[in-house]
Amino acid sequence: MASNLVYKQFSAESLQAQRPLVHAMKHFLKGAQQKNWQQTDQISLVMEATQIVTYARFVPFEHTLWLRGLYCIPSHREQGLASTLLAFSAERLAILGYQQIVAFALCELSPFYQKLGYQSIDLSDLEESQPFLAERFKQAQTQTKPWRLMQKTLTSALLV
Asked: How far apart are the first and last CA of the chain?
């Protein structure tokens, strides 16, 4: 893994003040076929010099975050960047007061998420706590790819 990688986490709102980064993000998202961020989202990046190589987008719902996007460019895969970025993000997001992350994981990727502390949950659990996310998961299930509903409880070493 390259040693000149920088990990960043910030709100989408604060991103707007960083014009060169906004331009890089829009270019990255277009190439990655990822949706653009919303004002309230939390964004995490791995950068190599001025190039974004790994990206995670979290959409807040009260004290819960939905992992809405995770992408690593092909030339940087199999180096642990996505795993490290998710761990980095979880620590920082816990400090901000978020209590859990919900992910719609492709079934074949559930072992990846399990290694990071995510656990499979039942849809009924999500329907009670986050009905909007439960509806979005039901919509995802109608697509051709098999999805698994997963959740990670956030704790910060700094808060313990």
From this structure: 31
For tokens 């299930």, name the residue: 141
The predicted-structure confidence for 7-36, as pLDDT tens digits, reads as follows 988 888 887 778 778 778 877 777 777 777
- How far is it, in rounded angstroms, from Cα 17 to Cα 4? 24
Closest by alpha carbon to 57, among 13, 19, 20, 11? 11
**Would you say the pTM of this structure is higher than 0.90?**
no
Domain 5-153 CATH assignment equals 2.60.40.10? no
Structure tokens at 8: 């960043």
Which of these, 88, 101, 66, lies nearest to 157 by C-alpha position? Answer: 88
